[in-house]
Structures are given as structure tokens and as C-alpha cells.
Amino acid sequence: MNQFQYTRPAETGTAIKALTKDAEAHFLAGGTNLIDLMKMGIVVPHKLVDINHLPLKQIQKTQLGLRIGALATNTEVAESAWVKEGFPLLSLAINAGASPQLRNMATVGGNMMQRTRCPYFFDTTMPCNKRVPGSGCGALAGINRMHAIFGASDKCIAVNPSDMNVALTALDAMVHITGPKGLRTIKFADFHRLPGEYPELDNTLQKDELITGIDIPASPFTKNVYYLKIRDRTSYAFALVSVAAALHIEGNTIKDVRLAMGGVAHKPWRLATAEAFLKGKPVSEDSFKQAAQIAMQGAKAYEYNQFKLKLAPNAIIQSLKMASGLAS
Amino acid sequence: MKKDAIGDPLNRVDGRLKVTGRATYSGEYKVPGLTYAVLVPATITSGTIIAVDTKAAQNAPGVLAVITPFNAIKVPGYQPDVAKPIKGLKLFNDNIVYFNGQPIALVVADTFERATYAASLVKATYQKQPFETNFHKNLDKGVTPQNGNYKDYVRGQVNAYKTAPVIVEQEYIQPSEMHNPMELHVTTAFWDGDDKVTLYTKSQGVVGSQKAIATAFNLDPKNVQINSRFVGGAFGSSLRTWPHEVAAVQAAKMVKRPVKLTLTREQMFTLVGYRPYTIQKIGLGATQDGKLIGITHESHSQSAIYEEFTENSVNVSRFLYNSQNANTLYKVVPLNVGVPAPMRGPGEATGSFALESALDELSYMLKLDPIELRLRNYADTDLERNLPWSSKYLKECYRQGAERIGWDKRSSTPGTNRDGEWLVGYGIGCGAFGAYRARTVAKIKLTPDGNINIQSAASDIGPGTATAMVLIAADTLGLPADKITFELGNSAFPPAPTQGGSATVSSVGSAVHDACIALKQKLNTLAGKAPDSNEQIDYAGILQQHSLPMLELTQESKSNDNAQKYSMYSFSSHFAQVYVHPLTGVVKVKKIVAVVDAGKIVNHKTASSQMIGGAVGGIGMAMTEEAIFDDRFGRYVNGNFADYHVPVNADIPQIEAIFIDKADPIINPVGTKGIGEISLIGVAAAIANAVYNATGKRVRELPITPDKLI
Ligand SMILES: Cc1cc2nc3c(=O)[nH]c(=O)nc-3n(C[C@H](O)[C@H](O)[C@H](O)COP(=O)(O)OP(=O)(O)OC[C@H]3O[C@@H](n4cnc5c(N)ncnc54)[C@H](O)[C@@H]3O)c2cc1C
């Protein structure tokens, strides 16, 4: 086996220090992504810093809404009564991902940090700028059925695979981060990044920083929500396209709306212009169709993912119909 | 005394062992001094290995050997000077790379983890050569197989369909599909001196494995002991002895210790076969009232450059329907890929998807109910061989299936049947698979406690072979099932055929039946009765009276000449009800009804389970399964269990299995025809046809993923 050190700190400060000293040290949470990457030789750590004993598991109500510790498992979050009641979109999204066994192990922080499922990233004999910067993008002219239609670069067209992230983006979550320089809090939407020239960077977290938790502000999106995930089998498959839709409806008018997509970009893809369009519009299939059209502006497909140009707007329409009750 | 009878839903005799984890599979035997072997796959797709740097691996902790083409001991059966050199890939015998993933080295270490790590340190240098893995680009390289069974077939006029007033001419694509049994392929091998070897290996036929290993190492087959008592699914992937199994035996010889070689899930995608990528052209011509004038079926199928693989994808079009004119063509396209293998419903599953889809297309052109179209072209005899059927109840299959699926609710205009937002569709797909019977020998033993033990070197890859054999014996002997044990999966037992082609119950069941009859005759004679007396036998009593410690006899059974006068097939008709969401292309298979004429059903419980399993396989073929190459690299991009989609529980609806359950009077004494393959053949077409009925969209390239329906 590749030799590596293993530490299991009990405090956040020690965990960060343990990481700072070594460039090839990694936090270990549920391990459902990291251990796979180690088995494939994609990550070869010198040190694993097991953070499972840090006190970051709580799900708490706060004045602003809900605070969820980075080590709360996906199952704990999805099944939390507070989440189900106040943020049902998050429950739906998490439960659309992976399998019960994986969700029991997976953590909020680990889910945010999970790497892309692009096959060229996963196969160490193939080129991948994300894995080996400068080696080329295997997907660009390869089998790119699962790949991005928004915000890609010629260096990388991979997508963020997470379902949870799509809901958290839609819900305007905030991320709490601790590092050697202290605490900082950023918008969830600013956590992940587009590939640009540096596809090796999935997000804006610095090497020695730890995600400690997220805040989700209370919102009126408690009833008319839906997470639509379209995939190649009914369960246990990553999204071809997914949509998190949340509506605040009064009478027949859309007072407020949140829309985000998964499976279409290097980061969870918030549909801000479509949201702006929908605000104040009547609940109708026509409004939804127009919003979907607006949302698709700037989309660009590759050889094998042309279908997403049609599937994505259709999914937006359907998710809004489901969220609003126009369909069931 | 309770008598168990053929047809009873007897629980699996090994069910308790299996669900309590006490059934020992090939990878679970604790052999003293066991070592662990891990294969190192090639990362090029064609060329030669110039050198393998094994230094780092050899120096890694716990490593006993790093075997490469440059230091491997010779496998005698691989050498060209032997009478019958082994066909296919000869691992570590030379330095040629034919496909990506072909093993170039084998590391043996004291633990699996250490072997895995050392394997990652092995580095090869290659001389690369150009290669071809793209099927479509190489279609023109298709050749008629060397295997003489695959010549062009013509009955009547070639392409007669073209002269008909109504014509369907279409192309259908079956992508490469992996067997992916839950149990990985694993072989544990150890030598006893220089001329005796024992294997625990995942095998569908221990006698075949015994012969293969004996040939490879130039041994007396008696000195090759193969055990494969439990197999965690195989679907055809263990019909043959694979090169890595030979390599395990070779490694055990080199390190002089027992060696266990387990493939990884990823290696299962390249080393143990698959249903080959196949493009089929179907031409159907019919009169306005739906009588077929001609059927043309042409198939191009993927094969490997180092070994030819063939299967019966076009055969079904020669006999299933009553067309005076029929012609078929079958070609293989050799590529830089691992060799395919028969996969459940081999050939016929692929073929019937094309034929049954085309027939469905014809029914809409004719505005004729698909069942009515099949009835109008019902084959009362086998026109291919010009023989009567031994038995055929396909009409009854249509009738019962239509009733159970609710065919009367089917709309004859596609896209018009709705349930809320969902489009509802119904489809039928039929199949046939040859009913075979091969020579089998069974040994039966009666002990003083009145118990019966039967042994035969049969296999059980999951259907419940032993359970079926116990029932046949119980019925024939007039004894309760719990007095009888049946042992299999051991090459020391009397020979039985490999478990394939749905022939086990027919072949081994006949031997068990005949052995029971022979035992009864012997006991009746001892008791002074007529040999064929049907009076209840006092099994223990007769032994006692004659002071016999036990009674044992061996009985051979094979088919008789009568069988040559008939055409013998199992028939199926599968029905599917699907819901399709028009906006998102999501398909829900809501219900499958499978009606089968497979002769007499020995055990309704395990047979139903087998039918359900076959339908699940058919749902995978229809809806989710496809191994995808990146032809620039010659590697699969989804060669793992996360990205290659085997159906999950959520994909599986209610599946109803119905048996006609009428004994075939010709094939064998019990009247069974076999269900293993037929359970899958026709399912994909039934689903694709239901999707068309729901949406008006014809998917001719499997699998039916959402993108194909929006
Ligand atoms: C077969 C399969 C199918 C799947 N299907 C889906 C799916 O459909 N949808 C979906 O959304 N997901 C899916 N997943 C992914 C799954 O959700 C992730 O593996 C999981 O969320 C990762 O969480 P973890 O706690 O196990 O992370 P780990 O594997 O422990 O860690 C992952 C990464 O995050 C880092 N990390 C962990 N915690 C922190 C922290 N607090 N601060 C900073 N860095 C941290 C680690 O260092 C590591 O780099 C699937 C996974 C598998 C294996």
C-alpha cells in the first residue's frame, strides 16, 4: 500500500494545523469519494486528517434560519424535521443522490467537495487537465454525454456531480470556512468556480481551509418546491440534468422564485435571469416555457450532449410545473 | 408420507446456506499458505511489449513473483507443436497486445493488498501500433465466420421482401452489454506435486474446466480436480475457461503455493466477455392482409482480432414465422477488443430485438394488431429444417399474455393513451430458443436410513439446479424431498454438460430421472416384484432384508434418434406496459408479463424466479446497459459499476411469469424444454414496442435512454 500518515484530531485548530504542514495532506470525512480516488491512484496522500471527531455534526435552528455542521451526514440532513419543514428542497435533492448506504456516510462538507465524475478524470491513463494540468481535456472531443453546456472552457467541460449543491445554491446558503488566517463566510454560489484556465481548482477553498458548516436563511420556499433529476436509471445514477425549483406563490402570482440546475456546468448553475423573469408572472405553463428559454441563453453543447439543449429547458418547465402544482 | 411432485414450489434446498452466508464460493475457500494474485492490464490497445520494469514491484513488501511474458514458465497447451493448441488469448506466452486491458503481468504476494500495490508499480514500455475499436468505421471489414455454422442462409428467393406490397426495411443496434454477475470471477489453484492440480473456480461447467486445464498443462484429466459448488451468477461469462484461470494455475506452479486470482470489477469489463455490439438489418415484406412474403435478416457483430466469436443472432428469422422466403447473413467484425462471450439469450436476444421490432413496425403500417399479425404468420412447422415441432404452444402464450397485461386497453394509435401527464403504451416481443439435451451421467446411492444421494458434475449458476433435481428424484421415487440430496459442481462426479443453452434440467434431469427408475427397478426386483411395478417401495426395508450396506448405481442418459425427427424449441411471448413522460423522456416500465412454453415446469417457485431474473436482464438490455468505448484510446469510458448502469430495484416493476406447463412428449422423459435463455429473449422488443405504442417514437438503438425520446 501507499504509506500515509493518519491523524484524528478532536479540535478544528489542530485539524487545520495538521493540514498546513503537508501539501499532500487531505481531510477525510465520510470517505465515499476520497477513498475511491485513492484506490484509483488519482489522489495519493501523504497524510489523512480524519475530521470525523470534530464537533461539526449539529443541525441547529438559528435566528436567520438553519445552521448545518460540515460533518452532518447527508441522511441526517435529509431526514431532519427542520429541514423537511423549512427547506424541503434540500431534502429532496439529497435523497435524489447516490444510495442510502452512501448517504449514511457522506457528509455536507464532503459532498460540497466531491470531484467530478468525468470519465477522463477518473481514468489515469487518459488526458485530463483537472487531474494533470496541461495534459489536455479528454472529454472535449471524446465521449461527452454527461458534460457541461454552460460556463465550460476549452480546458475543461466537466460538471459538478452533486445534487445537494444544486439545492443549496438555489436556497442562497452561506458557507463557513476556517483557515490559518481565521474565519470567513462566503456565498454558496461563490464557493464553486468555473474551470477557465485552471480546471484543477473545483472551488475557492484554499488548500489548508476547513469547511465548518453552512447557513441557510429562512425563506418562504416551504411548499411549492421540486427537485427533478433526469438520469439513465431510476436511482443510483448521476444527473443528465437536474433542476431545483422553489416558488413562493400568492394567489396565482409568482411572488418569488429560485431556480438552479445540476449536470450542466462546472458548478451548480443558478438561473438568475429566468428567476428575474418569473417574478410577478402568473403561474402558467407559458410563463415556465419562456423562463426555460431565457435560462438556456448562452448554452453550448458538444458532440454527445446535444440532447441537453432540449432536455434542460424541458426539465426546467417540468420542475416548475411540479413545484407549482400544475403537474403531479 | 408426503410426496413431493414435479411442479411443486419447493424452496431452494441450498437457500438457507445462501442467505446465512454459509455457502462457500470459489473465492472463499481457506487454503493453507494461500497467496494472492493481481493482474496488471495493458494501457495500450495494440502493439508489442518491449520490456516490463518489475524491479519496484519485486522489491515491494510481501511480493513472491511478478510474472510477465519474459519470465513466465511455458504453458504446454499454448505451444504450437501440441496436437490441439488452446484457442484464444495465450496470456504471458508472447509479447503481443491485442486489446486495451489485456493483462501484461501478474503479481503474486502474501496479501491481496500488497499484490494490488505492487501491481501498481509495474511499468511496461510498448511499441504501439494502430488499432481499430470503432464498429461503424470498420463495418466493411466484416467477414463470414470461419465457423461453418454461420454460412448465408436462403429459403426460396433472396430478398423476396422487396417484391411485396408492404415493406419494412430498418436497422437495429445492440450495443456491447456486460454480464456483470455480482460474484467476481475468481480462481484458487494449488498443485500437489507436478502432475496434480486442484481449482476452486467460478465455472458453469466443471467437466469443461477440467478438460481445459488438463489440456493447458498436459495433465491426465483425472489429475485435475475442479470445484465450483456455488456460483454467484454468470450469465454465460463462465462457460469457458478464461486465460486468467490458466494464469492462476501457472502462477501456483511458479510460486509453489496456492494462488487466488480475483478479477476486479473493472477487469470484468475486458476479460470475461460480453454481448457483442451488433448492427442488424431487417427486411420484411407482406401482403396487404399481413401475410409475410419474405424475411431478410443481416447481422454484423463485434469480434476480436485474436479469436473469432459467433452467435445465432439471425437464426430466429428463419423459423419463427411462416414465410416461404427467408434469407440471413451473418458477419463478424474483428476489432482490437476482448473477445465476446455468450450472454443470456445468446444471439437470439439480439436477433429477436430486431425481428420483433420490425414486425411491430409492419403491424402499424398494415394497421393490424401486432398479435393478429403474428397469428396470421404462425408457423405450424419449422420451415428452416422442414420438421414438425416437438411441441409448440405459442398461440396460447399470446392469449394468456394479452389477457394478463390488459392488451384490450392498448390504443392502436400511438401517442393517444394517457394517464395524467404520462403516455401509456403496450408492446409484445416473442422469442424462441433451441431445446437441447446432452449426455449426462448420474450416480444414485441409497443408504440404510432410506435416504438418497445423487451426484452429477452439473453446475448451478443460480437457477436452483439441485432443487429441481431433488424434485425430479422425489417425484420419480415417490419420496419426500427431504430424504434426497443432490450434489454438483465437482469434476470427480459423473460427467454432466456445462450449464448453458438452458439445457440443464433437460440433460441432468433426464439422468436423474433415469437413475431413479434404474434404482426402483433394482429394488423391485430384489423385492420380487415386476421391475416396473408402481407400488410404493420400502427403500430402507429392502436394504435391510437383503443385508445390504447400501445400493449404488450409475446411469447414463442421452437423447434418442426420435429427437432428430423433430424441431425442439422453447417459445416465449413477453408483454410490457410502459409509461413515458413526453417532456423529459423518462420511461417507467410499469409491468412485464412473460408467458413461456418451456414444456413441463419442474419447480414453479424457482422457475418463476428465473423468469423474473431474465426479465430484469431484459429491462437492463432495453433501458440502461451499454458499454461505451472511446475509440481514440480503445478504452471503455464507463467500465465500472457506477457508470455502467445495471438496472436497480427502482427500475423493476411487477413481473408476472406464466407457464403453459405442458410436457414436451419428445425431448426427454420429464418433458422439460428449458427457460434460462427464453426468459430474456423478446423482453427488449416488448419494451421498445410499448414505448412506440406510447409515444410514436421508434427507438432502434438500445438502450432507450431519456435523450432518445425528447
Ligand atoms: C457510486 C456513487 C454514486 C454517487 N451518486 C451520487 C449522486 O447521484 N449524487 C450526488 O450528489 N452524489 C453522489 N455520490 C457522491 C457522494 O455524494 C459523495 O461521495 C459524498 O457526498 C462525499 O462525502 P464524504 O463525506 O464521503 O467525502 P470524503 O470522501 O470524505 O471527502 C471528499 C473530499 O472532501 C474533502 N472534505 C471533506 N470534508 C471537508 C471539510 N469539512 N472541509 C474541507 N474539505 C473537506 C476531503 O478532503 C475530500 O477531498 C455518489 C458516490 C458514489 C461512490
UniProtKB/TrEMBL annotation, chain A:
Protein's UniProt keywords contain Flavoprotein: yes
GO molecular function, one term: FAD binding
Keywords of the record: FAD, Flavoprotein
Classification via PROSITE patterns: FAD_PCMH
Span of domain FAD-binding PCMH-type: 1-221
Protein name: Putative xanthine dehydrogenase YagS FAD-binding subunit
From TrEMBL, chain B:
InterPro entries, A to Z: Ald_Oxase/Xan_DH_a/b, Ald_Oxase/Xan_DH_a/b_sf, Ald_Oxase/xanthine_DH-like, AldOxase/xan_DH_MoCoBD1, AldOxase/xan_DH_MoCoBD2, AldOxase/xan_DH_Mopterin-bd_sf
Start and end residues of each Aldehyde oxidase/xanthine dehydrogenase a/b hammerhead domain: 20-130
Domain of life: Bacteria
Entry keyword annotation includes Oxidoreductase: yes
UniProt keyword list: Molybdenum, Oxidoreductase
Entry keyword Oxidoreductase: yes
GO MF entry, a single one: iron ion binding
PANTHER family: ALDEHYDE OXIDASE 1-RELATED, XANTHINE DEHYDROGENASE
Protein name in UniProt: Aldehyde oxidase/xanthine dehydrogenase a/b hammerhead domain-containing protein
Organism from which the protein derives: Mucilaginibacter polytrichastri
Native organism taxonomy: Bacteria, Pseudomonadati, Bacteroidota, Sphingobacteriia, Sphingobacteriales
